[in-house]
Write a structure and sequence with these properties.
By secondary structure, the chain is α+β, with helices and mostly antiparallel strands. It has one domain. The protein is built from 4 helices and 4 strands, in the order H-H-E-E-E-E-H-H. A hairpin with a 4-residue loop joins strand 3 and strand 4. The longest helix is centred in the N-terminal third of the chain and has 12 residues. The mean pLDDT is 80.
């Protein structure tokens, strides 16, 4: 919550304005293409909100049953974001770590003004998962 509030509430207005430049939000969408942000087709244009978590992941690895599905949460702090987890679902052999392994390196240093990330720490957690 501390990181979400510091980046999106305290510095939210300034960072929101800067993301317009970082992601090309104000550039026109045309039949011949548009600018993407690398991690998806565009930034959300919907309502913005913040809901406090009901459960946190405090250990390096935690197994939790989520609605009957066993999920393994792999804590990877100070990588793509100050607080982030990778998720593995053993029953499906599914690994969710999109933000961590995205080839765009979009968050080591951002134009919008987010805290600089630690690429060495980032690589450590990717290697751990491997």
């Amino acid at each position: 919550m501390q990181h979400a509030i510091s980046e999106n509430v305290y510095a939210g207005n300034a960072m929101n304005r800067r993301l317009f430049y970082q992601y090309g939000v104000l550039l026109p969408v045309a039949p011949h293409g548009f600018v993407t942000q690398g991690i998806g087709p565009n930034v959300s244009r919907g309502a913005v909100g913040l809901i406090a978590p009901t459960r946190t992941i405090d250990k390096d690895i935690e197994e939790i049953d989520v609605d009957g599905i066993k999920m393994v949460f792999l804590n990877a702090p100070n990588t793509e974001a100050p607080e982030i987890v990778n998720i593995y679902i053993p029953e499906m052999k599914a690994l969710g770590m999109t933000d961590t392994i995205l080839a765009g390196l979009h968050n080591i240093y951002t134009l919008r003004g987010a805290r600089v990330r630690d690429p060495l720490n980032w690589s450590k957690y990717i290697a751990e998962v491997l």
